[in-house]
Design a protein that fits this description.
- It contains 23 helices and eleven strands.
- It is of the alpha+beta class.
- The protein folds into five domains: 80 residues, DNA Methylphosphotriester Repair Domain (3-Layer(aba) Sandwich), CATH 3.40.10; 108 residues, Arc Repressor Mutant, subunit A, CATH 1.10.10.60; 77 residues, 2-Layer Sandwich (TATA-Binding Protein); 72 residues, Endonuclease Iii, domain 2 (Orthogonal Bundle), CATH 1.10.1670; 122 residues, Hypothetical protein, domain 2 (Endonuclease III, domain 1, Orthogonal Bundle).
- The strands form three sheets. A five-stranded antiparallel sheet has the order 5-9-8-7-6. It has a four-stranded mixed sheet with strand order 3-1-2-4. The chain has a two-stranded antiparallel ribbon with strand order 10-11.
- Helix 5 crosses helix 6 and helix 19 packs antiparallel against helix 20.
- The longest helix has 19 residues.
């Protein structure tokens, strides 16, 4: 019975306060089931702390537990985060986990920009609604305001940095989006009932790495790390990315909220025993830590709920055993323009050939950057740098082997992005942006949908005309594939990845 209640809540993502539902959530908490990690948080009245469902501390009595949909809601209720299970490491939720798409998009913006000085009006403007409407629907769903949610994001990031790095308290405050050290100290003490320095002392570690800043990002198991690395390795751009020794590395060029350009590198390793990825970044990326972490989450699809997806796609195995595996992730991207350009280059040619062309563009027009890591030498050109090539774009890229049609499409895409006519961010509306993409001459339907799948993290893309999909299901016609894929909604992007993995 408890499982039935869990499934019901799991699909709706609404915290039902009835006795039966609360009991079901308590049973999940008692079982320490990692599949529910990040799905809810548990406030414990006897200690005044809140925990993740996977917390290994002594199990509290059921009557002492209150359940919350978000960490922000738990903190607004007066609870402080557990130092053992560390709620700041809990995985998030994907965009399709909630019918309230607007609020999910809002959360993505808040988490990605928690170090910025954005106000509610700016946030609403990005989402195409009024601040009043956003505040109303956000509060109705999560029982906290967007501002309160943002504050919790900042505090939890600060807690993570204090626990896992050697950064000064001032650096932690600035990197977490607090305008002053005094404000940071006051808020931290008020919410967590101890000072930042006291927390650091309690959570101090002698083995903190000195090579860059290392933080952990959690996920819900299982995670098919080997399949993710294989996908990224096949599409890695020379000079930008490397996959060696079971880890992913790349160069990074980002702008701060003040439009200052910072350069550096990241390295991502898998820690399956912790259900987490360890993200190490160069210290000069300190001003853009929230943005780096948000992009890593997207690249490696850390908000994915593999169990929910597998329950829908398991019927693929009736077509052929092993066609679908639990734990397959949807590869995102770190740089949307970089990924989109590579997608354009890949039209009508092999993945390897597209990688060769992309590497030539990087070598010719990318920005050199020193990383100290073999194979990481350049940043991918920005839309503005591509536009600087001007009317000679066909000659500039043509000399590298890029066709005139693709050269012009890349230029026009860069122009649309620079003028903010197209939005490839995670909080974009994929259906609208795909229409805009196909309006660019040289970008077809397949390319637009592929970009939506990887750049915008859209989980419901099915590429029925893709050669790989057709090869994996070669006994089916295109029309049959479309009919078949209807039962895979809203996870058709994951179905596509599973099909590619069989080749």
């Amino acid at each position: 019975m408890a499982r039935l209640f869990l499934v019901s809540w799991y699909h709706s993502n609404e915290m039902d306060t009835t006795t039966n539902h609360n009991h079901a959530l308590y049973e999940a908490f008692k079982a320490k089931d990692a599949r529910f990690d990040g799905r809810f948080f548990v406030g414990i009245s006897s200690t005044g702390i809140y925990c993740r469902p996977v917390c290994r501390a002594k199990q509290p009595k059921e009557e002492n537990c209150t359940f919350y949909a978000t960490a922000a809601e738990a903190e607004q209720a007066g609870y402080r985060p557990c130092l053992l299970c560390r709620p700041e490491l809990a995985p998030g939720s994907s965009v399709t986990d909630s019918t309230a798409n607007l609020t999910r998009r809002a959360i993505r913006i808040l988490e990605q920009n928690c170090d910025s000085g954005w106000n509610l009006d700016q946030l609403a403007g990005q989402l195409g609604c009024t601040s009043r409407h956003l505040r109303r629907v956000f509060t109705a769903q999560y029982h906290v305001s967007p501002v309160q949610y943002l504050q919790t994001c900042r505090l939890l990031l600060a807690k993570n940095l204090l626990t896992d790095t050697n950064l000064s308290v001032l650096d932690v405050a600035m990197a977490s989006g607090f305008g002053s050290l005094r404000r940071f100290n006051d808020l931290f003490k008020r919410h967590y009932r101890l000072s930042p320095l006291a927390l650091r002392k309690e959570g101090s570690k002698d083995n903190r790495p000195s090579d860059g800043i290392t933080l952990a990002l959690g996920y819900r198991p299982p995670y098919r790390w080997e399949h993710m690395l294989a996908f990224l390795s096949e599409r890695a751009i020379s000079g930008i990315e490397t996959i060696k020794n079971d880890q992913y590395s790349r160069t990074v060029g980002l702008f701060t909220a003040e439009r200052k350009h910072v350069q550096g590198w990241i390295r991502v390793k898998h820690h399956p025993e912790k259900n987490a990825l360890a993200v190490t970044m160069s210290e000069n990326l300190l001003p853009v830590i929230p943005l780096v972490l948000a992009r890593v989450r997207h690249l490696f699809d850390l908000n994915c709920d593999p169990n929910t997806i597998y329950r829908t796609l398991i019927f693929m195995n009736k077509i052929r055993p092993g066609l679908c595996m639990e734990g397959i992730r949807l590869p995102g991207c770190f740089n949307t323009f970089e990924m989109a350009v590579r997608a354009i280059l890949g039209q009508q040619i092999s993945v390897k050939a597209a990688g060769t062309l992309a590497a030539r563009i990087v070598s010719a027009y990318g920005t050199p950057v020193w990383t100290g890591i073999a194979g990481l030498t350049h940043l991918f050109p920005t839309p503005q740098e591509i536009l600087a090539l001007g009317g000679a774009i066909e000659n500039a890229l043509g000399s590298l082997g890029v066709t005139s049609a693709k050269s012009r499409a890349i230029y026009d895409l860069g122009l649309a992005l620079a003028n903010k006519q197209i939005n490839l961010n995670l909080f974009a509306q994929p259906e609208e942006e795909m229409k805009k993409l196909t309006s660019i001459r040289g970008i077809g339907n397949w390319t637009a949908r592929y970009i939506a799948m990887r750049a915008m993290g859209w989980p419901d893309v099915f590429l029925e005309t893709d050669l790989g999909v057709k090869k994996a299901l070669k006994t089916h016609t295109t029309q049959e594939l479309l009919v078949l894929a209807e039962s895979w909604r809203p996870w058709r992007s994951y179905a596509t990845i599973n099909l590619w993995n069989t080749l």
